[in-house]
Design brief:
By secondary structure, the chain is of the alpha/beta class. Helix content is 31%, strand content 23%. The protein is globular.
Length: 107
């Protein structure tokens, strides 16, 4: 898992929050699934900037997943706005799944 960040300590907290968000079709959290690409913090404007993807461009649960990610970060970082950037480049692939995720999925 290689998540880009400008604040490693806060990123660890953000990942803790995001591990409560599952892809409901797969049953694995979005961090171990490899959907989180970057978590950055703008302290001047009190904003968490999340860059993430989905397993497919037309993921039927995409809106739910991104909304749940936003809510999880808002709970962990009260007073911060959360900006979710949904990207599809680079595309998601099985190689992004963490070792814990692979064990969970039996791969």
């Amino acid at each position: 898992m290689n998540i880009e960040t400008n604040n490693a300590t806060k990123c660890d907290l953000a990942c803790e929050a995001l591990k409560t968000v599952d892809d409901p079709e797969i049953g694995l959290n979005i961090v171990d699934l490899g959907l989180v690409y970057a978590v950055n913090f703008d302290e001047e404007i009190k904003e968490v900037q999340l860059t993430m993807t989905l397993t497919t461009t037309f993921c039927p649960m995409g809106e739910s997943i991104t909304s749940n990610a936003m809510m999880a970060l808002e709970m962990y970082f009260p007073g911060y706005d959360v900006d979710v950037h949904l990207v599809f480049d680079p595309p998601w692939g099985y190689h992004l799944i963490s070792e814990e995720g692979r064990v969970f999925l039996g791969r």
